[in-house]
Structure formats: C-alpha cells, structure tokens
Write a structure and sequence with these properties.
The protein is built from twelve helices and 13 strands. By secondary structure, the chain is of the alpha+beta class. The chain has three domains: 90 residues, 3-Layer(aba) Sandwich (Rossmann fold), CATH 3.40.50.20; 139 residues, D-amino Acid Aminotransferase, Chain A, domain 1; 61 residues, ATP-grasp fold, A domain (Dna Ligase, domain 1, 2-Layer Sandwich). Strands 8, 9, 10, 11, 12 and 13 form a six-stranded antiparallel beta sheet that branches. The protein is globular and about 55 Å long. It holds the Pfam family Dala_Dala_lig_N.
Length: 317
C-alpha cells in the first residue's frame, strides 16, 4: 500500500469534540492516529472542541479522518464545514450523517423501504403517556433520538417509571423516542463501501452482563462477550447482512458505518435499531473486531476508510 500512503499527504484525525461521547472519541481518535502513523502516514490530531474551524482550515490538511462521535461530529454539521473548506473527509456526507444521527427520521425512512425496525412513538411535553404505554406495551425503551453510546436510555418495566425516563431523555433532546422492547439477541453489522459496492462484514453478537449493554459495559469493562462471526445459521446471517446493507444504502451512507440489530427470541425475526455513521474505533469497538474476522488488521482498516475520503457535494460549475 505504499503508493497509496504517499498520496494521502497531510492527514488530520479529528477526535474529541463537544458531544457527550467526547471521552470515547478521544480513545477512537488516539487509536486511529497511532495506526496511521505506524504506516508512515503524515497524520496529526485535531480536537474541534479546543481549536476553531479557522485553525482547521489553516492546517491545510489534504484529507481528514473523522473519529468524532455524536453531536457536532457525526450529525452533518462538521461535514458541512468540511465541504465549505473543500477538505475531503471519511464517512457519510452531510445529509446521511444528519439523518443517521436522528433515530426517528431513520425509522421513517426504513419503514418506507420495508426495513424492519421496532414500533415506536415520539414523546413531546404534554403527550398522553398512558396511551403510549397501552400502544407499545411494557417493557419499552426510552431514549434521546440524537444521542449515541446508550446515553440517556432507560428500560421502562413499570408504567410509573415512564415519566422519569422521558424526563431523563428530554435532558438531551427536546423530542423523546419511545420504542417497543424486543426480547432477544443483540447483534451489530459493520458495513464498508458505498452504493452498490457497500458490503457487510461478519456479524458480531453482543452478550452483555444481564443483557445490559450500557456505556460502562461498552467501553470500560471486560465483562461483555462478543462472538464474531455470530453463531447463526447461514440463511439468517444472509438476511441480517442484507437488511444492514439495505438500511445503510437507504440513508445514503458511504465509506463505513455500523448497523445495530436485535433478533426477536420468539420467532428469530431481525429488527434494526440504528445506524452509526462514525462508529467507535477503540480497543473494545466492533467494526475493528468484524474486520479482524476477515483478516483486515486495525491499521489496514484505518487505511481503507481513509482511502474513501472525499467531498460529497457536487461542485459548482
């Protein structure tokens, strides 16, 4: 890959940022930065929470690797700034990043395409919570639709817990997402590429302590077990991977991403939860794990993602 590496020029690795996922982003970005440098790439870290867009422009990066998670890095806002600056960047463009960040809009698009996702309701101040519980049943999941890393999420098992769960989620987002709880096994599917060339990597099954794959169990303990490739029959594996790629394409994602999936215990039917357009790249992260299962090292994965960097918007004539 030496000929490709010399063509990257000066590379910025954007990590940190101002979102609730800042700490995870720092871990991701540090890993990416070290990986790129280990392959001789002229890579430099850049934290948008500590330095301005003007400083980003002044660095004259030839391209950037986005290792930011959540708001201001994964939601299309930074992607728009990079388009204005003409700096090629990894991952999805402005629209796909924005839509993928919003779990409600994502569901609307997926349902229009026949992609299975749990039933849901949006919750705004003054809504009839009893009616929502009656419709979705218990337990249900309450979450802020614009956050990631399980931040602000509550599993509601009793009706009297619903109001507090909504209040917690509303501390992050004005509108709250209430979602039917699907009892079953938890999986994730990494997707690489764009358009007709998008491909799914091996499925990862996540087995968390007591089924609680929360922020702590995601990033800071070794209690969660991961099985990759997941132990599924060939037909279900192909079905889940197809749904994941279809879901990724439906939002216009490109470069790389990760789609989270639940398989219902009662009938082994898959339901898609969300797409991550700038997934984690920490030592516990699932995209590098899936890549390793097909012989792609962490370093090679970073280079493949970086190779896809480009400005997505049509240039003015």
């Amino acid at each position: 890959m030496s000929d490709t590496i010399t063509n990257f020029g000066k590379v910025g690795v954007l990590f940190g940022g101002r979102s609730a996922e800042r700490d995870v982003s720092i871990m991701s970005g540090t890993g990416v930065l070290q990986a790129l440098r280990s392959r001789g790439i002229d890579a430099h870290g850049f934290d948008p929470a500590e330095r301005s867009i003007a400083e980003l422009a002044a660095e004259e990066f030839d391209c950037v690797f986005i290792a930011l998670h959540g708001r201001y890095g994964e939601d299309g806002s930074l992607q728009g700034a990079l388009e204005q600056l003409g700096i090629p960047y990894t991952g999805s463009g402005v629209m796909a990043s924005s839509v993928g960040m919003d779990k409600i809009t994502t569901k609307i698009i997926w349902l229009s395409k026949g992609i299975p996702t749990p039933r849901y309701a949006t919750v705004a101040p003054g809504d009839d919570l009893e009616a929502i519980v009656a419709d979705l049943g218990l337990p249900l999941i309450v979450k802020p639709p614009l956050e990631g890393s399980t931040i602000g999420i509550t599993k509601v098992e009793q009706a009297e817990e619903f109001e507090a769960a909504v209040a917690l989620a509303a501390g992050f987002d004005e509108t709250v997402l209430a979602e039917e709880f699907v009892t079953g096994r938890e999986f994730t599917v990494a997707v690489l590429g764009s358009g007709k060339h998008a491909r799914a990597l091996p499925i990862v099954e996540i087995v968390a302590p007591e089924g609680n794959y929360d922020y702590q169990n995601k990033y800071f303990t070794d209690d969660t077990q991961y099985h990759c490739p997941a132990k599924l029959d060939d037909a279900l594996t192909a079905e889940i991977q197809k749904h994941a790629v279809d879901a990724y394409r439906a939002l216009g994602c490109e470069g790389w991403g990760r789609v989270d999936v639940l398989v219902r215990e009662s009938d082994m039917r898959p339901f898609l939860l969300e797409v991550n357009t700038s997934p984690g790249m920490t030592s516990h992260s699932l995209v590098p794990m899936a890549a390793r299962a097909v012989g792609i090292s962490y370093e090679d994965l970073c280079i493949e993602i970086l190779r896809s960097a480009r400005c997505k918007m049509v240039k003015a004539q």
